[in-house]
Structure formats: structure tokens, C-alpha cells
Design brief:
Blueprint lengths: L5 E6 L5 H14 L8 H8 L4 E7 L5 E9 L4 E8 L8 H10 L5 E5 L3 H9 L2 E8 L13 E6 L5 H15 L3
């Protein structure tokens, strides 16, 4: 990443309301509606102590990539990762992962059946687990989608996977 771009990572609840709203606007622009919480629920999630935001600014201070992730007591869960199409294939997605991966906790992401996305995570040290799951619907429009679960450095054990599902079902979708 060249010096004209800045990487920022912080607890989402430390952001100013205007910055939270701007990041949510970007989220709503680039992700499908059925994959998202309603705006007020996303704001509540971002006020949580465990919710983290990492983003990259260009030389003019414009967000060109972001990652929203949970830092739970025993696991980290990447919820959204996005890089503007004009900046893709420049290592920015890998750079966004940096702070999240610096941990002894398991790091997990759910990935739709999209070879390009799966290849990205594999390139960055993630392993596809044999577990396929369908998350709890977070809005009334969501259709059932099956995801592959990827974890950083090594595959999850069966017990870790079970605990992961319990954690996100209790905490991730509570908003």
C-alpha cells in the first residue's frame, strides 16, 4: 500500500455518528440488501464494544475499502470486507485483514460460493472448513443462502465450529 493511502482500525463505537453513517451508506451501496441488517440495527451493532471497523482512505480522505468485524472474547468474525473496484488487485483487501489477523484467537469468515472470494481468503492464509451452514435470517427479505466457513491458519475443530455458530447466533444477530 503506497503512502498516499491510510489504514485505520478502531472500535466502531469510537467513530463519530457521521462516519458511522458514511460507512453504512457504503455498506448498503456495495452489499445486497438481503445480506444486511436494517440501518438502525447496523447502527446498534456498530455501537457494540466488540464491533470493529478497519478502513482505507485515499490521498483525498475518501474511503476506498473497509472491513467490519467482531472481536468476541474467544474468536474474531469478519462480517464484511470490501475494496472499491478501481482499487482492487492492489493488495488493499489483504491490508484490511492485517489488524484482524494479529491474534491468537481463531479468525472466521463466511463466504458464499464465489470462487474469486474463496481464492482471496485462501491466498491470505485461510482454510475452508467442511462445514456449510445457513445463518439466521437478519431481515425479512433474506433468502436462505449457504455459506462456506473459512478460518485463518487452520481449520476449526467441531467444537470450535459449534461454539462459533452459537456465538454469532446469540451475539451477531441480536440487533
Amino acid at each position: 500500500m503506497d503512502k498516499s493511502k491510510r489504514l485505520i482500525s478502531k472500535r466502531a463505537n469510537q467513530l463519530m455518528d457521521k462516519d458511522i453513517n458514511h460507512l453504512i451508506d457504503l455498506l448498503l451501496k456495495f452489499f445486497y440488501g438481503e445480506q444486511l441488517r436494517k440501518r438502525d440495527s447496523q447502527i446498534k451493532a456498530m455501537k457494540s464494544e466488540e464491533y470493529m471497523v478497519t478502513y482505507i482512505l485515499d490521498s483525498e480522505g475518501i474511503v476506498i475499502g473497509f472491513m467490519f468485524w467482531w472481536d468476541f472474547s474467544w474468536i474474531r468474525f469478519i462480517e464484511y470486507l470490501f475494496v472499491d473496484e478501481h482499487y482492487q488487485r492492489q493488495g488493499l483487501g489483504s491490508k484490511l485483514l492485517t489488524n484482524c489477523l494479529f491474534t491468537t484467537k481463531p479468525v472466521v469468515v463466511e463466504v458464499e460460493s464465489n470462487t474469486e472470494t474463496q481464492d482471496f481468503y485462501i491466498k491470505n492464509g485461510f482454510h475452508e472448513n467442511s462445514y456449510i451452514y445457513s445463518p439466521i435470517k437478519i431481515n425479512e427479505y433474506e433468502q436462505t443462502i449457504h455459506y462456506s466457513v473459512f478460518s485463518y491458519k487452520k481449520k476449526l475443530t467441531k467444537d470450535q465450529y459449534k461454539d462459533f455458530i452459537e456465538t454469532i447466533n446469540e451475539e451477531k444477530y441480536q440487533f
